[in-house]
Amino acid sequence: MPRRRKTPLSKTTIHRVGVFQPLNQSFPSTPNHSSQSLMNQPLLTDDLDRQFETASITEMDESSCLRNELSYFFLSSLERWKQSGDISYTMVVQFLKLVIVTSQLLLFGSLSSTRISYGERAELSFKHMYLLDWDPQYETLPYPPSTGIYSVYSREQLYSSVGFALREFNATELTSLNGYSFTEAGRSVRVCTAQFEPSAASLSDSDAVKVCRNLDLVNISKSALIDGDHTKRLLDSRGLSVDFARFQSLSLYFSLNSPPIHHTDWDMSVECFQFDIEITFDNSGQTGQVMVRLQSSVLEILCSAQHSGESGASSIQSFPGVSGTAPVLRRVVHLVVDLMAFNVALVSLGLCIASISHAVRLWKRTRHFFAAHYGMQLTGVFFEFVNPWLFLVLKSDALIIAGSISKLVHNRNILEAYRELSYLLGLGTLLVWISVLRYAEFSSQTHLLLRTIKRSVPGLLRFCACALILYFAFVLSAWVILGPFNVKFRTFTSSLECLFSLINGDDMYVTFSIIDRTKGLGIFLFSRIFLYTFITLFIYAVLNIFVTIIFEAYEDVKDNDDDDKHSPLWHFISQNKPPRLSVETQVDDCGMARANSRCETPEPAAPSALSRQHSPAPPEAPPAATSCARHDDKAECTGHGC
After folding, report:
1. S-S: 68 plus which of 26, 280, 447, 451, CB 3.0-4.6 Å?
2. Region Disordered: start and end of each range (predicted)?
3. Cα torsion for 581, 585, 588, 591, to the nearest 10°?
């Protein structure tokens, strides 16, 4: 097949041709004119078309360089790897961070859930041991309550309950099934009373006078706590008299040590804990109902610590199979994983900041180029350059770094900072998993899902702004009108939650049945009309409109998937794409594109006015040359016999 002669391009010669190079060769260096294929490409507008007529070779080089750089910048990580073989280290770090952070959360969650469950079961056993007449019915969920709140209603019940708690604590080592032991040989109990000032105008906590005394039960006879009267005389003798006209609360504080706990999980560790127990008789409401609460906090201690028993010197070492050392293996594993999570989050944070910095510089450079060459202010494209996903990655990295540092600090006792760690690590891992969705754009279906969510958010926010006004109107009315007759509407928060549960279809019949005819015909009829109206309006109208907005966004995205690519920026970038030839193309050693087709010699193209003024006439092409031009994304072969 005859070949076209490779005509060198003069320094001042401008041909109306596009410049294309493969991305793995063109970015980021300036295009090499001697190795480029000459193919016609579409321009942006008529104005830009006229500017290219009079453009200098330097401007063409700058335009081509920026176009190639933008094309490479907007490629996905997978496309970059396919075209240029470049591996996205950011993507590798993100997936590595996902694995490490998830492992960190699983270790933390398994450890904390085991300890929290152990602490809850131990607290339940303490309630059975130290609370007088405790019943398993009090252990049910708050709603629906099978019984009332555990409380005392007379002075005799109050002192009897205090004496019962002190007696049972004194006999813990003899009665406990778990083998709890005292932390002190004296079996000390701290008793505190809080009473309002006689002249206080308001009954607030700041006006209460608190008096505390330590009672060593070893030095107190059992007969001193045998009943309520003896307990009252004991408290009065220690300066803990209660004036029930000013009585706010009475609290008992004591501690116990657990026996060695043998875990059966992966590390087979042995742990020991200290329980700080608080029993509170709360009369802050001054209604005659003194509510009784028992709370316990768990603190991990070394199993080599001495536990004082009846002899005052019994040791944990007396338990068989206990080495007296801390679970070293578990701590080492947690330490290694926490350090890895900290380091990978720090690297991810640095890469993310570098990506944002590079994107901002390229955005400024592109705006300046469009303003200088085309007189166009490129607006509304900032988030085309700076991906919003990067800010999500920044937040997740900050949370993971803070959580890892906090976990390293509290490595010996994670329960001390359980709440802070759960927030930091839980939210950090949540954001890490969500940020990985950015790579789901490789799939058309998942990309469609993300675009649907993005498109529907503005409409949903506008709709929810109106729906929430209507919802809070119903909440306020239900709280004020139905609250005195229905426990589910007793507070504003419970009213908010109850109406939301009704939208989901929960406990409808119970909500209706609580208010019956015995509460009055007026409130009975009003509750029915109110609930029927709310349920009908929100379930059949509001929810359906909510779903319709999402469906419309989905249809809009599916039908107009490429609308975002019609901006001047994307028109400019699209000039760098090669023509879609219908014939097979190859590239020879000099980088010139040739077509394996049946085309014959074309007529030589007339040079432009600018090239006639500044350069000699180009040499004539040999008679066997071929030419392919691109018109409207179609390859057209010109020449004799085409």
Report:
1. 26
2. 596-632
3. 20
Distance CA 217, CA 187 (A): 6
**Cα→Cα distances 400→90, 344, 396, 411, 601, Å:** 17, 10, 6, 16, 66
Which of 442, 468, 496 terminates a domain? The answer is 442
459 inside domain = yes
Give me the pLDDT at residue 265, please: 67
Q: Which among 22, 33, 36, 21 is positioned nearest to 58, based on CA atoms?
A: 33
Residue 119: how many other CB atoms lie within 10 Å: 16
- Does residue 291 belong to any structural domain of this protein? yes
Q: Say how many residues make up the chain.
A: 642
One domain, residues 540 and 458: yes
Residue numbers of the domain that contains 499: 447-562
Pair 558, 630 in one domain = no
Who wins on pLDDT, 413 or 370? 370
In a domain, 353, yes or no: yes
Query: What is the distance between the alpha carbons of residues 66 and 573, in angstroms, rounded to a whole number?
Result: 9
- Whether 479 and 593 map to the same domain: the answer is no
- In eight-state DSSP terms, residue 315 is B
pLDDT tens by residue, 385-428: 888 888 999 999 999 999 999 988 887 777 777 888 899 999 99
Q: Whole-prediction pTM value?
A: 0.68
Q: Name residue 576's amino acid.
A: N
Cα–Cα distance, 292 to 278 (Å, whole number): 10
Q: What are the phi and psi torsion angles at 294 (to 5°)?
A: -125, 125
Sign of CA dihedral 462, 466, 469, 472: negative
Based on the domain organization, do 417 and 452 belong to the same domain?
Answer: no
Looking at residue 145, what is its pLDDT?
57
What domain count does the chain have? 4
- Evaluate whether residue 3 is within a structural domain: no
Q: Give CA–CA dist 351/390, Å, rounded.
A: 10
Calpha distance 238→191 (Å, rounded): 10
The CATH number given to whatever domain includes residue 465 is 1.10.287
Q: Between the CA atoms of 238, 243, 248 and 252, what dihedral angle is there, to the nearest 10 degrees?
A: 20
- C-alpha–C-alpha distance, residues 281 and 131, integer Å: 11
DSSP 441-473: GGSHHHHHHHHHHHHHHHHHHHHHHHHHHHHHH
Q: Do both 341 and 466 map to the same domain?
A: no
